[in-house]
Write a structure and sequence with these properties.
The structure holds two protein chains of two kinds.
Chain A (H helix, E strand, L loop, with lengths): L1 H8 L3 E7 L15 H14 L6 E3 L5 H6 L6 E4 L6 E5 L4 H19 L19 H11 L1 H16 L6
Parallel strand pairs in A: 1-2
Antiparallel strand pairs in A: 3-4
Chain B lengths: L15 H12 L11 E4 L5 E3 H5 L3 E7 L3
Antiparallel strand pairs in B: 1-2
Classes of the chains: A alpha+beta, B alpha+beta.
Chain lengths: 165, 68
């Protein structure tokens, strides 16, 4: 996402990261109880992943997170001006986003060439690479509790397969 | 997440409520509708920033997430 943010900055797209509640808290990265703590952990996130994009820290109660659907890794593309939602996804995938950004650039170019275009509704089922090994390795940096919670989740999903992700 | 957990839950626990969250995501905030405005704290300088301030200047890619 950092590469895309740089690549598309001069093409009319600003990237913003909204820092939310911790999805997999553990002893080393606990759930938020104070806003100052949330700011500190947002700084840790910024440092650990070398995030160059602007980070907006949501309220302790998750005002923005709730308004947009409360999922852990959502992605939206919002149009300039009227804030029209151009694209939404329940998981962030850079390859998918690149397709959408190029599509929007194409639409803009058609308008600039005075070709008539109008909106149409469409959906598609996206996919994303699963990187479980990397994810579980990261869980260990959150603390043993995060790992144990995840192992319990895997057991739960054996009986109740999730419809998502 | 499981029902009755607080927003800032202490430990991840999947359940029916998480399934509902994913289902609701598809039904709300449809494409083509106006994205809700919100205010949040910019980490860089601690200032409150509105989404509408950002979309007044540019199209915005909005990603949500956390450290964990």
């Amino acid at each position: 996402m950092e590469k895309l943010a740089i690549e598309y900055k001069d093409k009319g797209f600003d990237f913003v990261f909204v820092y939310t509640r911790e999805a997999h808290p553990g002893e080393l990265c606990p759930h938020h109880t104070r806003f100052e703590q949330k700011l500190d952990q947002a700084r840790a996130f910024q440092s650990q992943f070398d995030i160059q994009r602007p980070i907006l820290v949501d309220s302790l109660e998750g005002t923005a997170h709730r308004a947009y659907g409360i999922l852990p890794d959502m992605l939206y593309l919002i149009g300039k001006g009227q804030r029209s939602i151009w694209f939404k996804a329940d998981w962030t995938d850079a390859d998918t986003l690149r397709i959408i950004l190029e599509y929007q650039i194409k639409r803009r170019e058609m308008r600039q060439a005075n070709r008539k275009v109008g909106p149409n509704y469409c959906e598609f089922l996206g996919f994303r690479p699963r990187m479980w090994d990397r994810f579980v390795a990261h869980l260990h940096t959150n603390g043993p509790k995060a790992v144990a919670d995840w192992e319990r989740a895997m057991e739960y999903w054996k009986e109740h397969p999730p419809s998502h992700g | 997440m499981t029902q009755n957990l607080p927003y800032n839950y202490e430990g991840y626990l999947p359940g029916e409520e998480e399934e509902k969250d994913f289902s609701r995501f598809q039904q709300t905030l449809k494409v083509g509708t106006q994205a809700p405005d919100f205010e949040a704290t910019r980490l860089e300088d601690g200032k409150k920033v509105k989404l509408s301030d950002l979309t007044a200047q540019s199209n915005v890619v909005l990603e949500f997430g956390s450290l964990t």
